[in-house]
Amino acid sequence: MKRFYKETSIAPGDGGWQVLLDGRAMRTPAKAILTVPTQALAEAIAEEWRAVPEKAEIKVAHLPLTRLAATGLDRVTSQRAQVVDDIAKYAASDLLCYRATDPSSLVQRQHEIWQPLLDWVAERYDARLSLASGTSFVTQSPAALLALREAVAAHSDIALSALYNLTHVAGSLVIALAVAERRLSAEDAFSAAELDELFQIERWGEDPLAAQRLANIRNDIDACARFLALLEDKRLGGS
């Protein structure tokens, strides 16, 4: 579908902010009016559509914030408990809990970058996760898993859309929660999530397929982090 509108704007409505295309409220794929909680997020979504060149094809890949908002409204709202469970289950096998045994430089890097995040989540949510070495599997305590599920469930439907994507892409609920709590920047989240891959690239170099894969992951993490930050941004008068 090519760009069919001339102007984009935002307006308050239905307890939030709506994005308008030529004065008409944008709708999600399920035909709901796309309404977001903050003016900052609405303006960022409007800017995505404003940036589409005249007569150009509208590509979903170029509208990450729009996609996250629509997913939250269309899918999460109707199956919230399942989405919470799907996110929380990552705590049982979180990437940060599985450590290499060699080489020593990788072992040290994992400890330096990952351990502070595990220490943070233990203090922040009273959820202490156990570590495993090599290919062994570790069973996490029910108390820690419950605490992290409650942390996930504390998020709004629209925030869960980004939290789900972020957890899935990073392979780590701890990383996702750290981004949501602004404990971790998008760039640092990418570095933590792809620590092993980046370590191997330093040693052996990078091929084009790996480079494209990492670029996609970086973009996904950045979009989710920005989305979550804009949900909390009240500077533009969002409610």
TrEMBL record:
InterPro entries: ATP12_ATP_synth-F1-assembly, ATP12_ATP_synth-F1-assembly_N, ATP12_ortho_dom_sf. Belongs to the ATP12 family. It comes from the Bacteria. It comes from Enhydrobacter aerosaccus. GO terms for biological process: proton-transporting ATP synthase complex assembly. Keywords: Chaperone, Transit peptide. This is Chaperone required for the assembly of the F1-ATPase. PANTHER family: ATP SYNTHASE MITOCHONDRIAL F1 COMPLEX ASSEMBLY FACTOR 2, ATP SYNTHASE MITOCHONDRIAL F1 COMPLEX ASSEMBLY FACTOR 2/ATP12 PROTEIN, MITOCHONDRIAL PRECURSOR.
